[in-house]
Amino acid sequence: MTDAILTRQSVRKFRPDKLTEPEVTQLIAAFNAAPCGMHQTDVMQASVIKDDAYLNKIEDACDHACYDAPLLFVIATKADSQFGERDASVAAENIMVEANSIGLGSVYVMGAAFSIDKDVALKKKLGIDEGYKIQVIVSVGYPKEKPEAEDRSNRYKVTIK
Ligand SMILES: Cc1cc2nc3c(=O)[nH]c(=O)nc-3n(C[C@H](O)[C@H](O)[C@H](O)COP(=O)(O)O)c2cc1C
């Protein structure tokens, strides 16, 4: 299996190595290519965290729930938008699939997103605008090990009529 969607699996153990600038640029392009409800492009914003000082602040605030990844995409949406959670999720998937296509691992982290969202001072330091809620953090990095394979061919109920 080589398809980047089909081979993507959540990765929670990362090597400490930093991503290259072209890799970071490619992931930002994938974020920017995400669909958005009613083409409301101002609903969503992201902070791409690669600096160790900020990474440590986030990991300390969420008890390492971002798995000490070397890169974090903190995705926030307008708190009052009906599209927010959906926009953030499709953008997160874009990043995760793109990451897999270039040999990087990733995981969608909701728990830490909620913890960091409550930390108003840290949120501001991360560059998230007032009125925006952190919906998801995508942890990205070089996988330390290959996750255990899982047969996902029948994970969900699918009805064909
Ligand atoms: C809405 C949502 C919330 C999630 N939150 C977390 C989380 O907080 N921490 C975590 O380690 N994984 C989280 N995940 C990843 C799931 O655990 C993972 O996608 C699921 O176990 C299926 O595994 P797979 O991604 O390898 O197919 C989340 C995924 C989704 C879609």
Spell out the key features of this protein.
alpha+beta; NADH Oxidase; four-stranded antiparallel sheet; 6 helices; 36% helix; Nitroreductase-like; oxidoreductase activity; Nitroreductase family protein; Nitroreductase
Structure description:
By secondary structure, this protein is α+β, with helices and mostly antiparallel strands. It has one domain (21-141): NADH Oxidase, CATH 3.40.109.10. Helix content is 36%, strand content 18%. It has 6 helices and 4 strands. The chain has helices at 4-7, 21-32, 52-61, 84-101, 111-118, 120-125, and strands at 44-49, 71-78, 105-109, 132-141. A 4-stranded antiparallel beta sheet has the order 1-2-4-3, sandwiched between helices. The longest helix has 18 residues, at 84-101. The radius of gyration is 16 Å and the shape is globular. The two termini are 27 Å apart. The model has no long low-confidence stretch (mean pLDDT 97). The chain binds flavin mononucleotide.
| CATH homologous superfamily annotation | NADH Oxidase
CATH topology: NADH Oxidase
Number of strands: 4
Query: What CATH architecture do you see?
Result: 3-Layer(aba) Sandwich
Strand order of the largest sheet: 1-2-4-3
Shape: globular
Distance between the termini: 27 Å
Q: Tell me about the biggest sheet?
A: 4 strands, antiparallel
**Uncertain runs:** none
Beta content: 15-25%
Question: Whole-number average pLDDT?
Answer: 97
Cofactor: FMN
GO molecular function, one term: oxidoreductase activity
Organism: Lactobacillus amylolyticus DSM 11664
Family: Belongs to the nitroreductase family.
